[in-house]
C-alpha cells in the first residue's frame, strides 16, 4: 500500500527561482491526485518524473493565481500528448468559466472529457469517492472563497499469513477474497477462519491540505488526529498583523493548531518570498509542536 505526497510548489504568490507556487501530487494506493496547480506545475511534474497523464482528479483550493494559473497549460499538454481518459476537476464554481474559454479561443479540441465539479463555499462534505479513498472539503477563511481538502484512505486490505496459506495448499485465486477478510470453506467442510489466514491491516491514513487561510480554531475538530497536515505558514510571528490582514497564518499559529488538533505530523509551506529560508518558521512551529518539516520542492512524504 502506498500513500505519498510529492511537493511541487512551496512558495506563495510571487514565484522565485527556489520556490514555485502551490502544487502537491498525491499517490494514494495508485489513485493519482493533484492539489492546486500554480504556474509552471507541468514543468515540476516533468522535473520530478511524475507521469502526469495518470492524474485522475485535480483539486483547486481557490482562485488566486498562485493556485491555478498552471491549470490551462497542464490540460493543454495532456491533450497534446494524446490523453483519452476523463479528468475530474474539483474547485470553485467559476473555474470552468475561466478555463474553457482559454481552450476554445485557440481552437483546441480536447480528446478527453473534462468534468468540472463545482464547490460552493462553504461546504464540509465528501466531494469525491471511489473504492480506494474519499476526499472531503474543509472550509477555510481567506480573502476569497477557499477550501482545503482531506484525502482519506478506505480500509486497507489485511496482509496474508503466507505460512498458514501454504499449509492448507490454498489457491492464489483465493487471495483477494482472503485479504478482504473472508473465511475459506474447504471442500471437506472445514472452515479456515480469516483470523488465522491474515494479519490485521494498518489503520487507514488521512492527509489534510490547508492553504490559504487565516488561523481558525474551528479547524481543530476537522483536523483532529490526521496523519499528515500540510498547512500554509506564509508569515513569521513578527508579521502576524500582516498575516491577519491578508488572511494568512503564521508559523507560530500552525504549531498551536497542530498541537490542539493532535495531528501526527505537519508540513509547512506557502512561504512568503520575503524570507530567505524556512529555518525560523520551523523554530516557531516547534515552540508548540515538534513533528514538523518545511516543504521543499521534490520532497516526498510517505504516510
Ligand atoms: Zn496562495
Task: Explain what you see.
The protein is of the alpha/beta class and 303 residues long. 24% of the residues lie in helices and 26% in strands. The chain contains 10 helices and 18 strands. It has a 7-stranded mixed sheet with strand order 6-5-4-3-2-1-18. A 7-stranded mixed sheet has the order 7-8-9-14-15-16-17. Strands 10-13 form a two-stranded antiparallel ribbon. Helix 7 links the parallel strand 14 and strand 15. Helix 9 packs parallel to helix 10. The protein is globular, with a radius of gyration of 22 Å. The mean pLDDT is 95. It binds zinc ion. The site of zinc ion has 8 residues, from loops.
Mean pLDDT: 95
User: What ligands does this structure carry?
Assistant: zinc ion
> How much helix, percentage-wise, in residues?
10-25%
Q: Got a strand count?
A: 18
How much beta, percentage-wise? 25-35%
